[in-house]
Amino acid sequence: MQALTSRAKQVDRKPMTFIEKIYLWNIIKGMWITFKHIWKRKETVRYPEQKRPFSPVFRGLHILNRDAEGRENCTACGLCAVACPAEAITMEAAERKPGEEHLYREEKYAARYEINMLRCIFCGFCEEACPKDAIYLTETFAPANYKREGFIYGKPDLLIPAPGEKKKA
Amino acid sequence: MTIDWFFILEKLVLISGVLAISLVVAMYSTWGERKVAGIIQDRLGPNRAGFMGLLQPLADGGKLFFKEEIIPGNSNRFLFILGPSLAMIVACMTSAVIPWGDTLTIAGHTVSLQVADVNIGILYIFGVVSLGVYGIMLGGWASNNKYSLLASIRAASQIISYELAMGLSLIALLMMTGSLSLKDIVEQQRHDGWNVFYQPLGFLIFLVCSFAECNRTPFDLAEAESELNGGYHLEYSSMKLGFYLFAEYINMFISSALMASLYFGGYSFPGMDSLGLSPNLVTILGTAALFVKIICFLFFFMWVRWTIPRFRYDQLMRLGWNIMIPLALANMLITGAIVLYRSTH
């Protein structure tokens, strides 16, 4: 019969030899194997102090981007919500009033923009769909929360801080 | 009749010292076990609580104390509480006859570092160790739970089976030394060399049996989690569970001390009498040597646990009755023949 992998091993059904029957020799061999592991490199990552690097294509939490003058890029076109296979994104559009030109780049903006991080599958389709470079996926992941509501991220959570503004914790 | 107050004080200090040391060693055995497990499996083991996780046993103990105490409704309340208490008391009792060192001379008084040098030391240990099974048996029975009962029956039959081979392997040793006092046995080894070189087979049998007596892997069938939901302490919670686990580690410590004393020279070490140091210093060094031996044995217990899988129950019984006891008998016969030959020539 053709083996499925090159590592397949035939089961040895020969009766045990005397050495095998008294266990002791094989126990010593096993003990030697575990003993050698004392000097092996330890795999543990000491988590809070030491973090495992993400791969370059890692997709984590979203951010909403601003342009160079600190104005929100998002125009609430809804393409990200359409592209989202998990239907995690909702938004409400609003019209920019006179005097708000320093806040929003174009005449329309998102008054409400929510992503449900429990629904999101972090596929990055929203990032690809966005025509305004407004949404990006970062290299962090959503922290734990006590309630489901805590995982619905609104604009305050998603928007990157404007120049000269400290982001709330 | 005058009461020798110094004698009473000396024994009180010694008893509390030995008790404290065995408790601390048992506490840090839990830490050591997890550390050894981690290192053997390429992990780090506990390293959060304090430096290298050294405060971990305190955290665990504190947690156990604050856990909710549950006594099952249909259990026998008295026996349920008696079980872990008995396991703990019996585990602590054995340390009384083990010689922890030679004699110290303090202000003209000679203080022996042994709580009780009884001339039936080994017999006493066997008596007390056989009582240990009652703690497990009572706990399993009083829990009123099928799994606990099964586990405690397993433990009882296992301990009884292996006690036989253990006793037989010791008889060969006693034929050689001609004394039941542990102090005498250690003193003989101080002059004639370690018993393990004269009784290698006896030591091997004793070692395997002490693994079985302590319910340690590969003979931990009394707490086979995969088959019995946890074993005889299934219904126990809080510090009563802690007592059972703790008693196991104290038993391990005492078995290590016993093996070191019986086969590896106890508190004696090579070149002990030719150092030319003051007797008190030599005694302290000897006690340190004993503890080094004990720690080696404790490490060995843990090392075996993280290497060898558990035996099946029929394999365990076959090993005990069909292999260990005949081997121990043969060892006894050979030793007897040699002792007889030596005494006539």
Automatic annotation (TrEMBL), chain A:
Positions of transmembrane segments: none
**InterPro entries recorded for this chain?**
4Fe4S_Fe-S-bd (IPR017896), 4Fe4S_Fe_S_CS (IPR017900), NADH_quinone_OxRdtase_chainI (IPR010226)
State the protein's name.
NADH-quinone oxidoreductase subunit I
Record note on quaternary structure: NDH-1 is composed of 14 different subunits. Subunits NuoA, H, J, K, L, M, N constitute the membrane sector of the complex.
Cofactor(s) in the UniProt record: [4Fe-4S] cluster
Q: Which GO terms describe its molecular function?
A: oxidoreductase activity
What does the UniProt function comment say about this protein?
NDH-1 shuttles electrons from NADH, via FMN and iron-sulfur (Fe-S) centers, to quinones in the respiratory chain. The immediate electron acceptor for the enzyme in this species is believed to be ubiquinone. Couples the redox reaction to proton translocation (for every two electrons transferred, four hydrogen ions are translocated across the cytoplasmic membrane), and thus conserves the redox energy in a proton gradient.
> Per its UniProt entry, which superkingdom is the organism in?
Bacteria
Highest classification ranks of the organism: Bacteria, Pseudomonadati, Bacteroidota, Chitinophagia, Chitinophagales
Q: Which family does it belong to?
A: Belongs to the complex I 23 kDa subunit family.
Compartments (UniProt record): Cell membrane
Entries under Pfam families matching the protein: Fer4_7
How does the entry describe its membrane topology? Peripheral membrane protein
**Reactions catalysed according to its record:** a quinone + NADH + 5 H(+)(in) = a quinol + NAD(+) + 4 H(+)(out)
Per the annotation, how and in what number is the cofactor bound?
A: Binds 2 [4Fe-4S] clusters per subunit.
PROSITE patterns named among the record's database cross-references: 4FE4S_FER_1 (PS00198), 4FE4S_FER_2 (PS51379)
Q: What is its EC number?
A: 7.1.1.-
Q: Where does [4Fe-4S] cluster 2 bind?
A: 84, 120, 123, 126
The gene designation is: nuoI
HAMAP family, per the entry: NDH1_NuoI
Task: Write out the entry's keywords from A to Z.
Answer: 4Fe-4S, Cell membrane, Iron, Iron-sulfur, Membrane, Metal-binding, NAD, Oxidoreductase, Quinone, Repeat, Translocase, Ubiquinone
Q: Name the PANTHER family for this protein.
A: NADH DEHYDROGENASE [UBIQUINONE] IRON-SULFUR PROTEIN 8, MITOCHONDRIAL (PTHR10849:SF20), NADH DEHYDROGENASE UBIQUINONE IRON-SULFUR PROTEIN 8, MITOCHONDRIAL (PTHR10849)
From TrEMBL, chain B:
| Family per similarity comment | Belongs to the complex I subunit 1 family.
**Catalytic function, reaction form:** a quinone + NADH + 5 H(+)(in) = a quinol + NAD(+) + 4 H(+)(out)
Question: Where is it localised?
Answer: Cell membrane; Membrane
Which keywords appear in this protein's UniProt record, sorted alphabetically?
Cell membrane, Membrane, NAD, Oxidoreductase, Quinone, Translocase, Transmembrane, Transmembrane helix, Ubiquinone
UniProt xrefs under Pfam families: NADHdh
UniProt topology in membrane: Multi-pass membrane protein
GO MF, one term, reads: oxidoreductase activity
Task: Look at the named UniProt entry and state the broad enzyme category this protein falls under.
Answer: translocase
- Annotated protein name in UniProt: NADH-quinone oxidoreductase subunit H
Q: Which residue windows are transmembrane per the record? A: 12-29, 78-101, 121-143, 155-176, 196-214, 241-264, 284-307, 319-341
Keyword Cell cycle annotated: no
Please give the subunit comment from the record. NDH-1 is composed of 14 different subunits. Subunits NuoA, H, J, K, L, M, N constitute the membrane sector of the complex.
Q: Could you tell me what this protein does?
A: NDH-1 shuttles electrons from NADH, via FMN and iron-sulfur (Fe-S) centers, to quinones in the respiratory chain. The immediate electron acceptor for the enzyme in this species is believed to be ubiquinone. Couples the redox reaction to proton translocation (for every two electrons transferred, four hydrogen ions are translocated across the cytoplasmic membrane), and thus conserves the redox energy in a proton gradient. This subunit may bind ubiquinone.
Per the annotation, which location comes first and is thus the protein's main one?
A: membrane
- What is the E.C. number? 7.1.1.-
Q: Which organism is it from?
A: Chitinophaga rhizophila
